[in-house]
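anyone seen this seq b4? input:
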Amino acid sequence: MTTSLVSLDWLVLAPVLAPAFGVLLVLLADALAPRARGLHLPIALVAVGAGLGALPYAATSAVPARSLCRPGPEARCFYETAPWGLALQFLVLAGALLVLLMLGPGTTHLDRTQRGGPAVTVALVLAATTGAAMVPATRDLPTWLIAIELATLPAIALVALSRGRGAESGALSLLMVSLFSFALLAVGVGLWTLATGDATFGVDSLRVAFADPDRHRVLLLAILFLIAGLGFKLSAVPFHLWTPQAFVVADEPISAFLATVSKAAALGAAIVMLSPLAALNASGDSGATSVRLVIGVLAIASMTLGNLIALRAQDPLRLLAWSTIAQAGWVLAPLAMLTPTAASASVAYLLAYAAGTLAVFAVAAAVHSGTEGYGERSLTAYAGLGRGNPVLAAILALGLLTLGGLPPAVLGVVAKVVALQPVVGAGQWWLVAAAILNIVLGIAVYLRWLLIVVRPAGDAVPQRLRLDPGLAVALALLGAGLIVLSFAPGLVIGLTR
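predicted toks r here
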């Protein structure tokens, strides 16, 4: 009788395998039927939908859900998803589904905004989605590093294929940053392995390394390299400069993908790396305390700089880019506490941020249809939107209020409270004070845009916008979702616990 080297649960793996299989089907369909250009988006939607459909099984099978496990009672699993990981996978797949809807369902929008044809764009979105869904489930360093890059490199290609003016320079900026980030992560992974003698993010090996003075210093250096590398992925200050350069030159759905799905992958990677440090922080290790200070400073710098520059932005996508930088600070603030509840708080905040951001990007895609590229969008285009397109204005208002944390978008209010709970619990009042100041700055950022929406358009007659069917469906889903979650924000919190 033979014994299997690893145990497999295919349904637990489905959130990653479904979009990966979708890539193969899209490329196969393009090779066998190159003229059937309308097949690619439906295939992608089915693939992503299959991944979403498998999440309830993983959520109820075990806590955490595991696969690719070696035999034996103490053997490790190479694939493991805690509740926060399942919530991130839901965000990745749901975000990819909405982005695909914004791009379709026909090929007119794709042909106008993306080069290379629909098959290439759809395959790249699915490939990046596969990597992003894989990141929060990885526990070994090589797979973790590969998954991060799989979530990043196709996104760079999506920016490069945009037809907007300046797309090549934006993609080049993103590529250079990605290469530098990969170098930092690779060095950090090497130092982590050298210090711990372990190729996984294990708590026991980490504790042993921290107890040895020489290995302790190497491990601290490894953590700093890893934080810097992930800072680029999260758009945290001072690793943020690529964000506005890439956002303003890409099509709105592609920028929305960068702002949500790519950020979910980066957050998942950060939580996987920082989770073992929570045990050291609980024991009062000074090394863990210094890591907490570094992440807290990054959070404050990201919040403050992002909000201050967003206050002056005239291009709506540039404003959203700096908003993404500011929101990265809110995502990092709970993580800086290195407590067991920090991961859930950060993921819950990211879920609320993603819902609001996707809604705003979807409205921007409708308002700025045909004006992709640097310098072609302006906030003045939203004047009179409330009169000419009240439904679009309402969805935009809900999205902006969610990002600002203002009622009636209760989801945004609850998200900020949840993000601050671990910080208050840890007694880090300097970080609480900076966060409260940035709440005020953030409100000013989003109310500035909202006031333009409700301002009359002057003598011009407001035009009613024609929406692509896919974009209309995405707007309807996002509007309904924000309304439901504002009445029941606990649904988002429950996903992470």
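Residues 259 and 324 are 7 Å apart (CA to CA). The chain has one domain: 10-495. kinda curious what u guys think
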